[in-house]
Amino acid sequence: MTRPLRILVLGGTGFVGRSLCERLVRRAAGAGLVRVPTRRLAHGKPLLPLPTIELVQADVHDDATLRRLVEGCDAVVNLVAILHGTPAAFERVHVALPRRLAAACGAAGVRRLLHVSALGVGPGAPSNYLRSKTEGEALLQAAGLDLTILRPSVIFGAGDRFLNLFARLQAVAPVVPLAGAGARFQPVWVEDVAGALVAALDRPETVGQVFEAAGPQVYTLAELVRLAGRWSGHERPVLPLPDALGRLQAALMALAPGEPLLSADNLDSMRVPNVASGTLPGLAALGIEPAALEAVAPLYLGPRPGRARFGAFRAHARRD
User: How far apart, in whole angstroms, are the C-alpha atoms of residue 134 and residue 120?
Assistant: First the structure.
């Protein structure tokens, strides 16, 4: 049996985090402890039915608090990230937090760290998002920890904010004006990302490696929008916008309350193809055959009744 571990998951109440926590709890028949900090305990309600989950109300951006969270753990997984924000917000989440985390791990004597970054990072990245992700990676790589990095493409799955968002949009809009329509993505299923993190945790040989997490097929953004509409039963015409109009659209969206559908920084990120480079190991190196988008997305986007839909989804996820 796999040795029980005490694992700290930063971002454990989020989209990827919920799938990862479920897998970690099942990993050794519920043995061990999964510690999940959250700003508000209400955000962690979906995790409460899972045994061996320790939900803690905490601010991970506070040095002393983060050090206490890390103490006594065997490994840390960092999933914390944002897609929208000011340059200062990106720096706080993608740069300052990894710096704090490296210091906390060093102070607590915790060496094992798994960090989720993103495809497209690298020198000369065109957006605040990718530049801050690049800097965060570099800080952790220089910290002397037993580090494994996972770089996923856009992540899909039940409850995602990607395909579901475009499906809802097409339910009410007669046409979809789309900036960045030709941007390329290689979507990866959330369960495959969670599975890759668990596999890396269980394999000491992954220390020091960077893995690319991508699905089996590349799509343009316009193709993904059309598929989301088709599978949800609301396919609408997609109107690709030239760059100038796309940036005007993003600027107008930024004025609306709440998180924008698209920002100028997102458009800058999409200048870099969000696809695997082929020069780094992928999911296959972790023993995972990535699920096809067409095999999973219709199960949660389609108009089937909820109970039947999620029964089929669990069956595809190979869950008991």
Answer: 9
